[in-house]
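Troubleshooting entry. The earlier prediction with succinic acid gave an output that would not parse, so I re-checked the input for stray whitespace and re-submitted. Clean input:
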Amino acid sequence: MQITRLTGTLGAEVTGIQVSGDMPAAEFDALKSALLRHGVIAIRDQSLTPAEQLAFVRRFGDIHFHPHVHGLPEQPEVMEILKTETDTSNFGSGWHTDQMFLTEPANYTCLYGLEIPDCGGDTLFACMRQGYRTLSPAMQRLARSLRTLNRSVASQMAGRSASAAKTFSSMRAKDAPADETLAEHPMVRLHPETGEPVLYVGLHSVGLAGFSEAEAKPLLDFLMQHQARPENTCRLRWQPGTLAIWDNRSVLHNAINDYHGQRRRMHRITVKGGPTKAYPEAA
Ligand code: SIN
């Protein structure tokens, strides 16, 4: 297995392995360590059926089902992300980490490239560890004392002109939830496996517990911009057969919508997570 870092901050490309079949436990452990270390890994040149992708992802934990999008009829754990030649919006644009709008957000996401535009359709990633580390000590202290309020994009748009179904027109969207509650999370989250603090703010974060909207918005806007500074990011150029896995507890991602008129089709599986824990306020 060869591991090549994508940037000085996060991301790695992995070659020399096949994830289908019986990947030896030691190889899987090395891959998972690389994932925890680099936040996102891209494994090139895979050839996977939905069932094979699922068998691999199950090694990371139980499968999470997306609350707003149906899975494939023949393999419900696998969600197809599709933008066709005639669609204008894409699924997954904007900086976010998966299912932050739930009280138990997903741990990992595994995305497999099937049909990739000739150019465009890359995915950006940003490091939430670095997002926290590069705040001033005073802002770190403030952030450790705060809790964010989070809502899904579908629910943020409910009542506005665009419905979730219209936005992701070629995807198998479920009806937008009418009464989704806000999920509250610590702004500085303790990564349950590495023990590190991460700045846990994304596009689902719509407010701060105990703050008015006018007070919360400027701070959330600043933190989002801070996290997504170029030196905190990496960019993944997809090829058919690229399998990426990212850790939703340490990276944000953002699917770039720059390939109108071309088709992009991916298979996505997410792994269940648990309740979020705060990095100790006094740390
Ligand atoms: C997502 O899971 O948010 C979509 C990412 C992508 O399609 O690149």
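This one parsed fine. The helical segments are 25-38, 50-57, 128-133, 137-144, 153-157, 164-167, 213-227.
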